[in-house]
Amino acid sequence: MLTLIFCDCFYAYHAQVHHTDALLENRTAHGLINTLQNYFINQDEYVKETVFSQEEVLHYRDVKHLIRQLIFLWAALLLSAAFLIKKCLFPSPTPKEAQGAQKKIHEHDTERGIILRNAGILHLGSGILFILLALNFSRSFTGFHSLFFREGSWMFPAESYSIRLFPPSFFKGIFSVFVAVNVISAFLLLLGSALLLRRGSAKKKRK
Fold it and tell me: Could you tell me the pTM of the whole model?
């Protein structure tokens, strides 16, 4: 659902491929998506859209609450990762180091490399886990909703606008993008780790 807030190009592509507009009768997918985008970032308690049933409106309220929690968690993780990368790759020299001991700036390259390597392994491990979950997406999808939403509050008839607007293929696509980003992040972290470890090893040999 975060994709709906920050970027609707993914949904535009999905709607074009799967002809979503044709399933929505006299409404367009883009119009409904814009309505939900605005709802997820405004202060309204309930979405103001008449095509959704009361059950759907209540579910979107629950989704909105979950999104706010995810945004907070995502921002905290992003800031932590940015701080870690800056600390490891671009350390600030102490006054003593700045006076001419250039080699001391990279004194802890090995330690920084190990930190990045561990972070990369963690990302790679989570990426593998997500890939395994994707192999049985239907079960994973059900488990996710059972964990974060009230029982029965997220299941709607096939003719509902929510199901026609967000078919399983839409969520599979989002999940695939998420897995890809996770794996790429792991690769970048491991690459940074390898560079730091190599630099630390070369420095040790020079000594």
Answer: 0.69
